[in-house]
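Q: I'm building a small set of examples for a reading group on sequence design. Run inverse folding on the following structure and report the sequence directly after it, with nothing in between.
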């Protein structure tokens, strides 16, 4: 999304109309760079885009994304454009809504993982992990379930009069509330799987992986 921002696709400035999707990126790049990109060909658009985005951007990935989204001429099916005048972000949102929507045979996936490395007074370390994997179904996406159900279970506790706290409170203030939410999620198959294992010098943890990655960079 940062790259799309760099080439002007998330802009909220003066609205305009477009004839096709390549004309959208040509217009936003013209606004960003102050130059007219008169040609629809891939080389011209990519050359201009590279002037507006960070130099570390992978050129092949950029080209693949632009082709898939029909922002440059490609064999990818192009959805209809907005007929009315709109800001760049509104045109782009319309494009994403059509290109990225789930087909009837597709479903989403949510993967959640927390990892805490704890040390006791003797210096012994343990890796505490809590994870969740869930898939969307025809009646609801995985994201909808993970976002909506916790709020629903909390609201039911409030409606039942089982929550005495008022105002903005931390999650640990009222056990009846957060425990009720966790119990409800467990019942509908969204419970977290928790494990504890000793920390060893050869342990593969999220922390070790991130540290190793930073060293490479």
């Amino acid at each position: 999304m940062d790259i799309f921002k760099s080439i002007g696709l998330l802009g909220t400035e003066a609205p305009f109309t477009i004839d096709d999707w390549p004309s959208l990126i040509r217009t936003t790049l013209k606004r960003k760079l102050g130059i007219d990109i008169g040609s629809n060909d891939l080389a011209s658009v990519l050359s201009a885009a590279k002037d507006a985005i960070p130099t570390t951007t992978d050129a092949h990935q950029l080209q693949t994304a632009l082709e898939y989204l029909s922002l440059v001429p490609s064999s990818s099916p192009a959805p209809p454009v907005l007929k009315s005048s709109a800001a760049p972000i509104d045109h782009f949102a319309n494009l994403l809504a059509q290109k990225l929507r789930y087909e009837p045979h597709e479903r989403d996936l949510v993967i959640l993982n927390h990892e805490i490395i704890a040390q006791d007074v003797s210096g012994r370390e343990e890796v505490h992990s809590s994870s969740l994997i869930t898939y969307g179904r025809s009646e609801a996406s995985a994201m909808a379930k993970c976002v909506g159900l916790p709020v629903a279970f909390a609201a039911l506790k409030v409606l039942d009069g089982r929550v005495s706290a008022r105002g903005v409170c931390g999650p640990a203030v009222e056990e009846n509330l957060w425990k009720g939410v966790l119990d409800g999620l467990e019942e509908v198959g969204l419970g977290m799987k928790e494990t504890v294992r000793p920390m060893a010098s050869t342990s593969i943890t999220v922390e070790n992986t991130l540290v190793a990655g930073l060293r490479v960079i």
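The first helix runs from residue 2 to 6.
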